[in-house]
Predict the 3D structure of the following.
Amino acid sequence: MLPLCISHGDLVKLFVIALLATTALAVASLFVGVSEISFFALLSGESNEKMLLVLGESRIPRTAALILAGAGMAVAGTIMQLLSRNRFVEPSTAGTVESASLGMLAVLLLAPDLPVMMKMLVAALFALAGTALFLGILRRVPLRSPVLVPLVGLMLGGVINACTTFFAYRYDLMQAMGAWTSGDFSAVLRGRYEVLWLALALTAAAYFAADRFTVAGMGKDFSTNLGLDYRKVVALGLLIVSMVTASVVVTAGILPFIGLIVPNLVSMAMGDRLRHTLPWVALSGAVLVLLCDTIGRVINAPYEIPVGSMLGIIGSIFFLSMLLRRRSRAA
Amino acid sequence: MIEFSGVTKVYGSTTVVDDVTAQLPKGGITSIIGPNGAGKSTLLSMIARLIPCDRGTVLVDGLDVARTSGETLARRLSILRQDNHMTARLTVHDLVAFGRYPYSRGRITADDQAHIGRALGYLGLNDLGDRFLDELSGGQRQRAFVAMVLCQDTDYMLFDEPLNNLDIRHAVGMMKLLGNAARDFGKTVVVVLHDVNFASCYSNHIIVMRDGKLFLQGSPREIIRSETLEQTYGCPFEVQELGGNRIAVYYT
């Protein structure tokens, strides 16, 4: 955890160092995989055509996708936690991801030939509706314990997932569904991940609205008192969260728990003033996904453990410890 | 001046605030007192457009709060409700700085910086600026919220139970501070108070609510009397003159 007395200038320096470390990690991840690519061969110009092909078509897109998806999901989680005013909420505990997934299935059933961008937009529309439903339930059913909020989200997600599974089963699409319900970057190739750059654009948009999200995170009354149109900020937040989630689900599948782990750790270390913390959230999300994916490629080589499974393990442990910590503090 | 006429709020079959009409004078402290469930907090929230009125209108300096833009109102009127549960993890300094949001939209200017420093100083929070709100005691947190409202520097400042969580020293300090703000800076302060003696000692004007209706209003001298208080709260009161203030005794 960072010491609290650290100055803003030091924090900026620290961020630059962290950024460099992340870049190094990203470069390293380019050289991890079944097909041998040597860093030195590339440098000395002794690389062959195959190496460059693998690098350009698969490795670089994969690493870029990991960074974009990780940063995007972490930022989406932060926004959701502020808007729902609950530390346990993120796209995979609020029905957002499941709704996006249902949207994907709908596209697959009704209009399988749509371009990726359109698929993403349909999924985003579903995600938006699902998340709005979740927030609507929260508004109507006041929950006394903060722990109940993600439970409601998980139940909602379960119900939506049941619908998805039903239709997938009826139309023999279970296998296709499996491809995007578990987050996996092994199929990311050039031309198949570019929609994620949109997630980056949205993350940047979130940064410009950072102060608004922080004020909204103080609650509706505080926002109104400070002259902020609370509903507009919530709508903007939902839009960003849905589009980011949908673009990740469409390209790589579900990446659970990043939106939970990263925002909580950053908040513990440096609070929720998003103008200062959002760059850290994005960077940490990217690092976490990069790390999980790279480890998944290494520990069972030449096979891969999908990054979704890696995150599921790490994330569920983190989620449980958060719940237990909360309970012991309440007791 | 704050004027409201025919203000009404209905939840289901209960009318929480029932056709209340009044004018709050500009300047000074106006206290709203009354038993639990009298509709004090709801009335205050309606004045500050946190809750929409079902019927009636609220005018602040002639501006209808239901129609005026949030930004414009945020520079004229501020409100602090009670029970401010905050999940966002902010430092005291950041919280107070957000009081300048209506002016600077988050880009703090030198002028804002001066306001922030002053507000922190007034509430004795200089040493706590870098602490997170969730690391503070209830009283310190309450002072931080009040500092944010002061930093907002509006002509009208509304507080719902500002003495919540404060010990006696800080409660007295808070009322004196509000009195100074009204006297020295020409602010208009409206407070919902439970303690009738604080209302008696510090108010220029008192409004008494009962069963959602405006029951009485007037100066402390007119309101703090045993008959009126007994009618308001439904229990025996003895009012004595002490050091120029009227003090109600109701403990036994």
Remarks:
- Residues 8-330 of chain A form a domain with the ABC transporter involved in vitamin B12 uptake, BtuC fold (CATH 1.10.3470.10).
- Chain A has one domain: 8-330.
